[in-house]
Q: What sequence folds into this?
C-alpha cells in the first residue's frame, strides 16, 4: 500500500491545481484526501479512490471501477472507496465535482 511522494504531489499540484481546499494526510499506510477538512478520498499504491455511497456508487460501477480492499490476517476488508476512473482524473472540472460530492458523504460506523 505504499504511496510515493511524487504521486501525492501529482495529485495535489497537477490534478487539483494546488487548490488550497484540497489537502492530504498520511493514514494507516495510505494517504487521506480532504476537501475543506472533510475526507473524500484515499491514495493507496499510487491509485486514487473516492468515497462512495448510494448517492454516487452507480457513477463508479458504470465506469468499471473497483472497490478499495486490503488483506488483514488473511481476511479481505472492503472500504466504501472506489477507484477513480481515468476519464475523471483527466478532467479538472469533473474531478473537483466528484471530490465535492464524495466529501459530503457521511459514513456510518457500524
A:
Amino acid at each position: 500500500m505504499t504511496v510515493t511522494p511524487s504521486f501525492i504531489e501529482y495529485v495535489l499540484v497537477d490534478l487539483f491545481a494546488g487548490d488550497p481546499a484540497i489537502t492530504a494526510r498520511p493514514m494507516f499506510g495510505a494517504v487521506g484526501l480532504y476537501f475543506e477538512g472533510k475526507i473524500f478520498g484515499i491514495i493507496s499504491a499510487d491509485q486514487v479512490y473516492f468515497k462512495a455511497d448510494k448517492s454516487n456508487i452507480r457513477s463508479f460501477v458504470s465506469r468499471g471501477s473497483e472497490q478499495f480492499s486490503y488483506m488483514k490476517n488473511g481476511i479481505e476488508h472492503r472500504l466504501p472507496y472506489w477507484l477513480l476512473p481515468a476519464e475523471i482524473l483527466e478532467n479538472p472540472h469533473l474531478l473537483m465535482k466528484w471530490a465535492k460530492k464524495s466529501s459530503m458523504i457521511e459514513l456510518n460506523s457500524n
Observations:
- The first helix runs from residue 5 to 15.
- Residues 53 and 107 are 8 Å apart (CA to CA).
- The radius of gyration is 13 Å.
